[in-house]
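To whoever picks this up:

The parser on our side crashed when reading a file containing two proteins. I've narrowed it down to the boundary between the first structure block and the second sequence. Both blocks are reproduced below exactly, byte for byte. First block:
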Amino acid sequence: MGGYIDRRHLARLTRRELATSYIRVCNLKHIHAPESVCDAVMVMGQVVIGTDYFKTFVSRLRNLVGGEMRAAQKLLVCARREALLRLVEQAQDIGATEVWNVRFAFSNINQMRGNRGSMQVEMLAYGTAVVRRQG
């Protein structure tokens, strides 16, 4: 069941990313052509996401023997995409066509709970949404 939910979520992410693909996202600190900027606003996208218990169990076994923890990697990729997409959608809501100085912050929620339950992470994406003057 977890695989089905993951595939469905990734398909929704892809559709939403295509709908907002016209918005430029950049990690540079300095805005190109700042004289044409009429508004700049900080935008954020935040998500808390987790895996099912089976994937957590398999990851804990992998932790004992070593190797790549694919379930944890997929969890982080999914969280990063969702957080960035929420940031871009917030920029879209204010009419921005660019987001500059994009950064990510990460928190392992599972460690806060004493390492019980499924793997859970919080991902925060933030940046500066820019609205340019027309013409």
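<<boundary where parser fails>>
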Amino acid sequence: MQLLNAFETTFDAPVEQHPPAAPSVLELLNMADTSIQRLVGMAKKLAHFRQLDQQQQTWLLKGCAAEVLVLRTSKMFNPVSVSWQVGQC
């Protein structure tokens, strides 16, 4: 329940309300940065994560950041149009 609550209150909101039609590389990097910041915020809400020392927290976050971005991005892919729907997750 704690994990679900942390996810819903920190990580599950849309990255951007009004994304550009064709985002630039910089805008995509900013969206990734926002996702990483939300991941850190979500992790800090978990009691077991807070019990780890700072080095262990850093290792966990670095180890999962790429996977989280891939999973989050996969939610934005539209197989019907074979395109990425930026701003949909």
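After patching the parser it read the second block fine. Residues 2-7+24-84 form one domain. The mean pLDDT is 80.
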